[in-house]
Amino acid sequence: MQFFKKELKTLSQKYKLSSKHFQIDNDGDPLRIQNETGEHYISPTHFEKGAYFSSPHFDHELNFGSERIPKIHIGKFTRFGQGSAVNVGADVYIGDYVWLAPGSTLLRQEHNAYGQPSIGSRTMAMTTQPSIHIEDYAWIGRDAIVGWGAKYIGKCSIVGARSFINKWVGDYSIVGDHSKILGYLPYKAYFMEYYSPSLKDVLQISNWEKIFEEWKNYYSKNIKTFKTTFPSLTSFVQEKLTNKSRVLIINPTTPSLFADFPKKSAIDILIKDKSLLPFILQQAQNMGMQNVRTRIIENLEKLPLETNLSVIGRETGYDLMFVNEKSLTHFELSILKNSLKSDGLLIDILTQKIIFPPKNEQNFDITTNEMQNNTH
């Protein structure tokens, strides 16, 4: 890792890049971790034998200026296991104490298989190379492949061994093959977000069962303090919901969100209030919700959303979005609109009023809990 860091510094000086363009923290001494059964040491950020960084199509000559050179951030005490690979052509952010287990791969490139024949689609013109963001304490299991659609791997999340994932992974969740959500970790969310422990404090914990019991007691005493619930969905909105629906909820004020949603509908939640997160995860677990992804966002002005795309008749956007209209700027609302499917709805989370499309573009009125003169 020292060699890698030195080579990047040379590259940075050659192209006069910012001092923050490449940030790798492999300073410090090994951490000595001791518990009842013995002790072990965790090395500062390092590569094990055979681990490597690479750009897709490294054999191509790219006509890029220095401004296109990807940024790289690697945090403290991160481990790249034997034979693991980072194959990314855009910005790479890897947080503190991330473990890429032996043989795991970050494969961030996509070839369009719908246009040209398979060989032709492997040209640079048909290849996208998106960035990747891996949050602190994430664990990529042995021989797992993080594919082109998995742009974000959440805090304290786990990607199971030999899994292939092609969707982003929520904070404090466990996923298996094809990004199937296997479970949530609300007690870890409680500990990490309420106590803000140091990395060394986290690594010294040997009895997570005790933290789990503490969380159970805290949850049972405090869940009743949330007096508000997610407003009951109108009959029209409920008719639009299926197990295949994609739903986005931004900054909810209550963890009681899921009563009206099908258990298999995909629900993404972007939230600023960290104290609410473990309650939401616990509620999702209690109600048997199978596709809830949460992500803590510090700044709503940088909504991590992509524009809706249509690929051979299949749209990638959201069917329904629930937001607090008064809390969002016009710019943020425009991002949300661009991430809706062509027949998607943007709905105020408090009043159930449709924000977009405008009422004069609708053949329906759902400002009350029942349809009024529905001609849709």
Q: Can you characterise this structure?
A:
With about 375 residues, the protein is an alpha/beta fold. Helices cover about 20% and strands about 25% of the residues. The protein contains 7 helices and 29 strands. The chain has helices at about 1-15, 185-195, 200-205, 210-220, 235-240, 275-285, 330-340; strands at about 20-25, 30-35, 40, 45, 50-55, 70-75, 80, 85-90, 90-95, 100, 105-110, 110, 125-130, 130-135, 140, 145, 150-155, 160, 165, 175, 180-185, 245-250, 265-270, 290-295, 310, 315, 320-325, 340-350, 355. The strands form 7 sheets. Strands 4-7-10-15-18-20-21 form a 7-stranded mixed beta sheet. It has a 6-stranded mixed beta sheet with strand order 24-23-22-27-28-29. Helix 2 crosses helix 4 and helix 2 runs antiparallel to helix 6 (about 275-285). The longest helix has 15 residues, at about 210-220. It is globular, with a radius of gyration of 23 Å.
Q: What is the percent of helical residues? A: 10-25%
Major sheet? 7 strands, mixed
Residues in β-strands, percent? 25-35%
Could you say which structural class the secondary elements and strand pairing correspond to?
alpha/beta
Strand order of the largest sheet: 4-7-10-15-18-20-21
Radius of gyration: 23 Å
In total, how many beta strands?
29
- Spatial shape: globular
Cα end-to-end separation: 61 Å
Total helices: the number is 7
- Residue-averaged pLDDT, rounded? 87
Would you identify the regions where 5 or more consecutive residues have pLDDT less than 50? 363-376
